[in-house]
């Protein structure tokens, strides 16, 4: 286990009806004028925004509402929010929605005190030195932004999607009511689950050897998501399953699942290779849901790099899917690892996720554009488990256009089958 610093200052209020506590909690922090940032209307239709407004009003907190944060939030929305927050003299931001609304709110929060253009933080890697405080009302569990130190913003003009991070943008408080997620479409729910699993895997495959405590937290979260996701798709109002998924999404990305797995005490675990590769896809094609893109990209990244450390993938297959090699031969190890990766992608497909990038209407001619902007964002090499060159990235993207056929285990092959041939 490597040295680490675990910083998780967010106060989580979890359960049915907790949004009623929002106004009093905001007022108790001394925040009197807040910009309320939300997405493209679902919180209006479900009445969540009305509950937020009522709670703030009852506590004597003035609020200005700003809607329109799209999936893969765009920097023009952030710039407009910064201007509105300044004109309103907001002393805090309240985000209502999922990762898109929260990430946009975070960028607004650190853009307000900055004299330059907010894109500087993403393009020039200007460090975040000040930010307005942030509260969150979560309605879409997926990105984990309610407890994380990061946000990701797109720039359509440049065809780029880039992240920025600082503990200054971890939300001060998050209000999480699982009943708010009952109306989520199945596709959005599934994409969110994939994103959560990817957040855990980015840390699990971080180029660091076994860290038993953290590793069991990580695989336990993945197993929970695999168990609970089908329940939610079968019954969208299964409160316990919704609650489990919502809380797992937070723990997947508040750095708990990476403790002791980072290369530096203050750094985040993992090289985030799958996220880096996928961000280029949804940057160039903003209609691609991030989690849905990861459902294709991450398994193919795994297939490309697993030989760098087969033992890591064997532990993943054993703890998550009960897959073990039948002996110590190279062929048995290969079969076991590939079976585990196939099982993961098959699970994604079972949730209704795409089988390849072709399913998004993207052609292989897009690869050059993906690689070009990836190079601008990441440089010539990036990653931790196995540093990737741009040629490596191109090969992985090319694989993402292959059709994937989920495996069919024969009866009697054990717990999802031993990797026997």
UniProtKB/TrEMBL annotation:
InterPro entries: ADH_Fe/GldA, ADH_Fe_C, ADH_Fe_CS, BDH-like
GO cellular component: cytosol
Chain ranges of the Fe-containing alcohol dehydrogenase-like C-terminal domain: 189-399
Gene Ontology MF terms in the entry: alcohol dehydrogenase (NADP+) activity; butanol dehydrogenase (NAD+) activity; metal ion binding; methylglyoxal reductase (NADPH) (acetol producing) activity
Ranges where the Alcohol dehydrogenase iron-type/glycerol dehydrogenase GldA domain occurs: 9-178
Keyword line: Oxidoreductase
Keyword Zinc appears in the UniProt entry: no
PROSITE patterns, per the entry: ADH_IRON_1
Record protein name field: Iron-containing alcohol dehydrogenase
């Amino acid at each position: 286990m490597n040295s680490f610093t675990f910083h998780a200052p967010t106060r989580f209020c979890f359960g049915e009806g907790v949004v009623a506590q929002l106004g009093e909690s905001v007022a108790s922090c001394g925040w009197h004028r807040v910009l309320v940032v939300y997405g493209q209307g679902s919180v209006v239709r479900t009445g969540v925004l009305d509950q937020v407004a009522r709670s703030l009003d009852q506590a004597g907190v003035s609020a200005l509402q700003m809607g329109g944060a799209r999936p893969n939030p765009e920097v023009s929305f952030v710039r407009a929010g910064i201007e509105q927050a300044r004109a309103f003299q907001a002393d805090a931001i309240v985000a209502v929605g999922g990762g898109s609304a929260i990430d946009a709110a975070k960028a607004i929060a650190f853009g307000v005190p900055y004299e330059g253009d907010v894109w500087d933080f993403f393009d020039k890697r200007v460090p975040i030195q000040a930010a307005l405080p942030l509260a969150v009302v979560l309605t879409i569990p997926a990105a984990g932004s309610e407890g994380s130190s990061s946000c990701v913003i797109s720039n359509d003009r440049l065809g780029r999607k880039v992240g920025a991070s600082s503990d200054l943008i971890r939300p001060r408080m998050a209000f999480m009511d699982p009943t708010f997620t009952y109306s989520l479409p199945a596709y959005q729910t599934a994409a969110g689950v994939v994103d959560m699993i990817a957040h855990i895997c980015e840390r699990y495959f971080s180029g660091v050897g076994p860290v038993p405590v953290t590793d069991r937290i990580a695989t336990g979260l993945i197993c929970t998501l695999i168990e609970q996701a089908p329940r939610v798709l079968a019954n969208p109002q299964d409160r316990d399953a919704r609650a489990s998924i919502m809380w797992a999404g937070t723990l997947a990305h508040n750095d708990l699942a990476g403790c002791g797995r980072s290369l530096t005490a203050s750094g985040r675990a993992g090289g985030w290779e799958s996220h880096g590769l996928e961000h280029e896809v949804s940057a160039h094609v903003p209609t691609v849901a991030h989690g849905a893109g990861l459902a294709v990209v991450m398994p193919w990244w795994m297939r490309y790099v697993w030989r760098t450390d087969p033992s890591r993938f064997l532990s993943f297959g054993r703890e998550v899917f009960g897959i073990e090699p039948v002996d110590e031969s190279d062929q048995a190890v290969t079969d076991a690892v590939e079976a585990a990766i196939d099982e993961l992608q098959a699970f994604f497909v079972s949730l209704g996720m795409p089988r390849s990038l072709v399913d998004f209407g993207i052609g292989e001619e897009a690869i050059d554009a993906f690689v070009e902007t990836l190079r601008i964002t990441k440089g010539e090499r990036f990653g931790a488990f196995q540093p990737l060159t741009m040629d490596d990235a191109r090969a992985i993207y090319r694989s993402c256009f292959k059709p994937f056929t989920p495996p069919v285990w024969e009866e009697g092959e054990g717990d999802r089958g031993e990797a026997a041939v």
